[in-house]
Amino acid sequence: MVMAAGLGKRMRPLTATRPKPLVEVAGKPLIDHVLDRLRTAGVENIVVNVHYLPGSVEAHLAAKAGGLNVTISDEREQLLETGGGLVKAAPLIHDDPFLVVNSDNLWIDGPADTLKLLASHWDSSRMDALLLLVPHARAQNHRGLGDFHMDRAGRLRRREKARIAPFVFTGIQIVSKALLRDAPEGAFSTNVFWDRAIEEGRCFGAVHQGLWFDVGTPKSIVETEAFLQNG
Fold first, then answer.
1. Which of 45, 142, 172, 208 has its CA 20 to 30 A from that of 215?
2. What is the Cα–Cα distance from 118 to 102, expressed in whole angstroms?
3. CA 22, CA 56: separation in Å to the nearest integer?
4. Cβ distance 194 to 157 under 8 Å?
């Protein structure tokens, strides 16, 4: 599942005329960076949700899918946010568990392929969600306070108020369809699912071994490109 339906408000004015996944970073659209990583990891079938300027995303995918089988989850009538988007797309996704990647993601692999490494950590007997996290100190351009704490077994808990959490969510995760059970109707955040999984002890994390960039604003694009160019 590739999440590509957001409005990209923080990326304005670049998103005034194009959706955020088509904003270019380091010479190509953000979504193309993701598609390249998916192909390298051996992914063959993807579901992509669309809402904002959906025709642009669909046309780009038709031209740039490069061997990937693409199915569109259409949210033109209502933007469903991350959680609602997963629920709507679930009938189109035939694998369980399945990979979910934000289309505005930019990462560089460490010693191993990031997506394959994440998959190697999956354990259906213990998990409903497995989130790829990056240490706060290595979250390039990230201005937030972090998202999660992780115990020795890999179980996650939320950041405590007025504290910095040691790990940041990268926008990459593996989830089971069991995570989506008893979902609210309409638009809602994946946080609803994560909070329940955390309470049940079934939300885990794996640490990204490479580089990851928070590319959410025009300024962050400049910073990311400078980092990639200069090392």
1. 45
2. 15
3. 8
4. no
pTM for the complete prediction?
Answer: 0.94
Question: Of 147, 150, 137, which Cα lies nearest the Cα of 169?
Answer: 147
Which of 81, 90, 72, 47 lies closest to 177, judged by CA? 90
> What pLDDT, in 10s, does the model give residues 111-133?
999 999 999 999 999 999 999 99
Residues 6+ apart with CB under 8 A from 106: 25, 26, 30, 33, 212, 213, 215, 224
| Token pair 């809402």 in the structure block, residue | 51
- Distance, in Å, from the CA atom of 108 to the CA atom of 209, rounded to the nearest integer, reads 9
Nearest-angstrom CA–CA distance, 112 and 38:
14
DSSP 210: S
Who contacts 123 (Cβ-Cβ below 8 Å, separation ≥6)?
none
Distance CA 115, CA 210 (A): 11
Q: What span, in angstroms and rounded, lies between the C-alpha atoms of 108 and 114?
A: 8
- Whether the CA torsion 219, 138, 115, 121 is positive or negative: it is negative
H/E run at residue 45:
strand 45-50
What digits encode the pLDDT tens for the residues 30-76? 999 999 999 999 999 999 999 999 999 999 999 988 889 999 999 99
**DSSP conformation class of 133:** E
